[in-house]
Amino acid sequence: MPGGRILIVNPNSSARVTAVIDRALEPLRRTTSMRIEVVGNPSGPPGIALQADADSVAPFVQDTVGQSDALACVIACFSDPGLHGAREASAGRIVLGCGESGILHAMMSGDRFGIISLSESSTQRQRRMVRTMGVASRYAGSVSLSATAEDVTSPAMFEAMAGAGDELVRQGANVVVMGCAGMAHCRDALERRLGVIVIDPVDSAVAMAIGLCCLKGSRVHGDAA
Amino acid sequence: MPGGRILIVNPNSSARVTAVIDRALEPLRRTTSMRIEVVGNPSGPPGIALQADADSVAPFVQDTVGQSDALACVIACFSDPGLHGAREASAGRIVLGCGESGILHAMMSGDRFGIISLSESSTQRQRRMVRTMGVASRYAGSVSLSATAEDVTSPAMFEAMAGAGDELVRQGANVVVMGCAGMAHCRDALERRLGVIVIDPVDSAVAMAIGLCCLKGSRVHGDAA
Amino acid sequence: MPGGRILIVNPNSSARVTAVIDRALEPLRRTTSMRIEVVGNPSGPPGIALQADADSVAPFVQDTVGQSDALACVIACFSDPGLHGAREASAGRIVLGCGESGILHAMMSGDRFGIISLSESSTQRQRRMVRTMGVASRYAGSVSLSATAEDVTSPAMFEAMAGAGDELVRQGANVVVMGCAGMAHCRDALERRLGVIVIDPVDSAVAMAIGLCCLKGSRVHGDAA
Amino acid sequence: MPGGRILIVNPNSSARVTAVIDRALEPLRRTTSMRIEVVGNPSGPPGIALQADADSVAPFVQDTVGQSDALACVIACFSDPGLHGAREASAGRIVLGCGESGILHAMMSGDRFGIISLSESSTQRQRRMVRTMGVASRYAGSVSLSATAEDVTSPAMFEAMAGAGDELVRQGANVVVMGCAGMAHCRDALERRLGVIVIDPVDSAVAMAIGLCCLKGSRVHGDAA
Amino acid sequence: MPGGRILIVNPNSSARVTAVIDRALEPLRRTTSMRIEVVGNPSGPPGIALQADADSVAPFVQDTVGQSDALACVIACFSDPGLHGAREASAGRIVLGCGESGILHAMMSGDRFGIISLSESSTQRQRRMVRTMGVASRYAGSVSLSATAEDVTSPAMFEAMAGAGDELVRQGANVVVMGCAGMAHCRDALERRLGVIVIDPVDSAVAMAIGLCCLKGSRVHGDAA
Amino acid sequence: MPGGRILIVNPNSSARVTAVIDRALEPLRRTTSMRIEVVGNPSGPPGIALQADADSVAPFVQDTVGQSDALACVIACFSDPGLHGAREASAGRIVLGCGESGILHAMMSGDRFGIISLSESSTQRQRRMVRTMGVASRYAGSVSLSATAEDVTSPAMFEAMAGAGDELVRQGANVVVMGCAGMAHCRDALERRLGVIVIDPVDSAVAMAIGLCCLKGSRVHGDAA
């Protein structure tokens, strides 16, 4: 069984968001022999609110991924800052963005996904991401909370998230993706409340990373031929 | 770490195809504590050549998935016969089709995927599958080998597969998906030859199944909140 | 004028649905010299509620079409079970699915079509069908009745159908397709009520079958050259 | 059985094209009790070569359709000049364009259609038509003959048409649509030569018109309820 | 600096609409050394209400463009009647349609545009135009005023336009395009009211025409090489 | 007539590329009273070869745009680094990316555009950009030169560019976009050679900027109402 490490990169500077992500991954850690580590970006912005925030942290993400010896790296911000660059620079490396992974996981879980987004600016980025991925015909839309990444770490936001989820279901979503890495703590409750599958993007990305690390490990162990 | 079982269902009756799939999964078995078992369909057709073949095995797939107590089931036929029905009938169950999984994995590995298909009829099904998934803007096309599922288990087919792969790259693919569960044994050689990532769909589906079993296991172990 | 026969295949076991389809075709029979026959599937499920139901009847549809000497065969279930397989197996044979035909007819009748569906599961199949056909940009959506195929043969469902139709018009449909073979009896009343064209899918498929039988007949009679 | 009339409108002034269309419909006439009449447009251009030609005949088409008492009208020019306007002005009237009908018929006959076009300008119009119809994901492309509508009435063009058809098959078409109303005379030979279904658009439109006239006639005869 | 002339062609016969367009361009005139002239079509319909109206004026537009010696011509009707034909007939000439220009400008101004349309018939034409342009994934929809081109020249329509704009924003538009050449006079007030960018299509087309005249002028002045 | 300034931002550090852009704009300068200034990015990479290069210069672009008092800013790199962020941060400011502008201009100039790209990595970015813009159905593809931004400033590259253009025309493009800001010097010769319109993206963006500055100026001068 693969040892090694999966590195989760939170590109914002919020220690609270990093802690929420880290704690939310505790149960997953118990299922694998790989180490799952979370790092933050102390010199980054407190959250990825605007496109300029996403752009500003892309070099940090690429450097962190490039210098790491982890088996797999996961970008723990729904905007996937630096994803394409990090992948291009490290061919053969497992690099996952939680936005992309969460959306692909949603596509295996229902016919149309909707996204709970932090803000109108996030919604715009999500629309662009969905088109860039080429999956717009599976996308019901995004509903915004008018909140920050730190805000959603608080249980007080649950009702707002449930309201946004209900609205997405009304708009035709039958699977809901949480559009921020800091919402993980309320996935289970939200799923029970909405009655449709709820995807935590970091969960999905780490699960895929575990699987892909096994796949990569299998190729090192030897060819099947 | 999850024990449990991942059940791989080859819906055709070819013992040779079942054996090739089984042997190809040997290295992946060494990376996980889960058991990976492969079953065939002795009463099915020798291969899924036509749409009618795919249709004829869908009930078998759904019954096998429905009666299994495996943590996850993988349909090991690129046409994913019975996938949507099996998923619908067993909400909460992990059911993966190797066609869908291979294509989603390809979308994380390159910008445009091409598919090596067995026959012109397979190509038609792949076109419909790609549109059903809503990912046609990422699809470069399929190139057919005019072969059966049994044929491709033979090393003699390697040159034909490499030729099809080269043609896909000429048509703009920068990742190539092997469009049959029985081609796994030559993935590594094909990747070296073509110079682009080559996806074995069963590999991809089993890797995702491992990851999703960990994710599911984590939810049984306890809530992160 | 072509004699011959058009065979309408209702893949479910409901004698009531078969009878409603048969009676609804009475007026069309008076317009053609071809015989229009309707057969049911006594050993099938009572309705095509789930994807597994559709999958389970595909082999019956393909056998019935394959063994018939009718000039044209029409699958009288909106999910078109077995359509692609039946077509592939009988090149040159006229095989129509009422789902496909109804949607193509709608595309000649208005800019955006909406579908009245039986259930949420039907809606999911319709979304997949619309994408498979490649016509999603013409699709306003489906609104479900939470009913069975037998239910909709009753006049008591009219108000529910009208309500679903109104909702589709609000969502931008300017032509409404009835998403079940058993709704034909209320097409006229629904059209008057909604104020937009209403398509009965079996009607559309049989009309196209009549036309295509004439076309095929013309080719037997002799070449135009 | 419906008596009545189907009016075929050739919007160009070429008596030769009108005669070719008329003669090509002879076999279809023997299959129906409806009269099938073809009219030309003596004051129109000799062919619909440019978009301006199409635009210039739209009012003629709309007037001819509007003043006719035929049960159905078919626009016998692949660019469908005046189609949307004629339909809008005569709600409830059966108005078919041979471009649209030929393409929809092709979508029931194969997965990807290609079009043999007269000229580069026709190809541009076909691309726009395919996008307007919302069916671009089913379109393999157009290959141009650099010919006029009169040219293609000559048997001498057969080799050029077969060459264009071969090229379309190479580009992934598995059904070929003849992109001009004057090509009908060589449909059968072309189909034998290419080995895929070949669609004559006027044939398809008249066949659909026959079917839709039966459907309309059935509604006059009485309600099925 | 280029002298020359930009010719704005209002294809309808309403002197009031022509005057509103002309007056609305006054401020733009002060920004350029080019003359901006507006002509109407006294023998046209009072407004382009139906598709047949659009078709009927296409030849006038093409003749007017073809005979003009203006540097650039702008079609001042949102349906862009005659645009493709005029462009094809005068390669190298700058010919802009205000519908196309307004939509392209909107695509630089926001992620999803909505259109305030005159009538349900206009909405249908706009849907077709958006698909023809291939930009449907950026289109939130159209909301109709049930008004004529003359109606919207009146300040009394402002509330109805604001209501339509609000509805478009609710439907996900973050930029609103006024779908008629006669609405220019209330663009500023509408933008203040809606809180999103509002595009007047004639404004956009004339602005692009000014820019493209400069570009063309630069090529006459001499090559940069 | 507007005075003011249009600022062209070359985000790479190549003085040669900056000089080529500057010189290529000389003829456009003679057509407007606005000043057109070009700045480079001395601390940037020598060219935007990889996605990581594009990401690394986005903050520079956003800072430069944000601190400038120019009426309009144009990003003179086909990857449009920083475009969405710069626009979002400066609502009401005219910010154009030459990639986006060149593509929109191409959409007014032909039905399908192809792009001459520097490298395979550029091609990937162009595919993503085209999907992000939502205009993939108008895109024929990209053909790469395997060159750097500096390379293409040399006349020696002309034959390679012409070859790439010919290949794009063969693939169905009827307008060709030069996919790098440093290719402007050979636009005229390339257009003569290929026989289709050739778009220089910086030219297009500056022309649009001139037009939009006039439009903005007109709103300052006073309301048309």
Automatic annotation (TrEMBL), chains A, B, C, D, E, F:
UniProt xrefs under InterPro entries: Asp/Glu/hydantoin_racemase, Asp/Glu_race, Hydantoin_racemase-like, Iso_Racemase_Enz_sf
Domain of life: Bacteria
SUPFAM superfamilies: Aspartate/glutamate racemase (SSF53681)
Gene3D superfamilies membership: 3.40.50.12500
Entries under Pfam families matching the protein: Asp_Glu_race
GO molecular function ontology, one term from the record: amino-acid racemase activity
Family: Belongs to the HyuE racemase family.
Protein's name in the database: Asp/Glu racemase
Organism the protein comes from: Lichenicola cladoniae
